[in-house]
Amino acid sequence: VGVRFLLSCLALAPFALFEARRSTTARLNADDLRLAGLIGLCLFAGASLQQMGLVSTTATNGGFLTALYVIFVPLIVWALIGVKPRAVLIAACIFSVTGAWLLTVHGPLRSWNWGDALVLVADMSWASQIALAPVFLKRTHRPFCLAFVQYGVTAGLGLFMGLAFEPAPVDFHTAIPSILYAGLLSGGVAFTFQILAQQYTPAPEAALIMSLEAVFAALAGAALLSEQFTPAAVLGCVLILLSVALVEV
């Protein structure tokens, strides 16, 4: 977590600097920086707790439980700024979670343990990050600054916790390709595009669109790993696509 988001932070530094020089809005004040730091703390908690939870939970449990952040986002937005979720949004959330269930579980969740609980807490952290980002963007119009700060906070905390509590990795070099991909493409590109898009998309709708991650994961598994689509998985993909189409139309 620390190393991958350090790469993301370094990749975003030039863009954040260019944005600061070109910005016509007032300079960031202490409240803006505290909010950006809080969003970074949410990102760190979500990424770290998810990693810790996946050590002891099953892949199917983790996949389904991670998808539940779609439900938490409209509830957090309602609590923070008083925007009550529309009926169509509630229906879309139900469709999306049902689709994730069909894609990842194919039956009742079993063997509940602390890993499952950590993934659920991580969901609330992801949801808070998605819900708070538009608040910062509306006040500052500085998406690259937000990306840079949240990556920096996550990198700093991740490196501190990793160096303090984890054994030194003896075969770290084997993870370098994965860390480069996660740091530069997943963080530097995908997470940053998410923040850029959230200037224009309400948080609950953004969370639903991001639930398409499960569909793309299934398609990638079929294309790259020769995984087979079951009828339940196909129905799950259809339900997630329907949920996104429903709320956007």
Order of helices and strands: HHHHHHHHHHH
Determine the N-to-C terminus distance: 37 Å
* Biggest sheet record: none
Number of strands: 0
Poorly predicted spans: none
Q: Mean pLDDT across all residues, rounded?
A: 86
**CA-atom Rg in angstroms:** 18 Å
* Overall 3D form: globular
Q: Fraction of residues in helices?
A: over 70%
Structural class: mainly alpha
* Helix count, DSSP H or I runs of 4 or more residues: 11
Beta strand %: under 5%
What's the structural blueprint in terms of helices and strands?
Elements: H1 2-22, H2 30-56, H3 59-66, H4 69-81, H5 87-104, H6 114-140, H7 143-165, H8 176-197, H9 203-210, H10 213-225, H11 231-248
What does this structure look like?
The protein is mostly helical. Helices cover 80% and strands 0% of the residues. The protein contains 11 helices and no strands. It is globular and about 50 Å long.
Keywords:
mainly alpha; 11 helices; 249 residues
Could you give a quick summary of the protein structure above?
With 249 residues, the chain is an all-alpha fold.
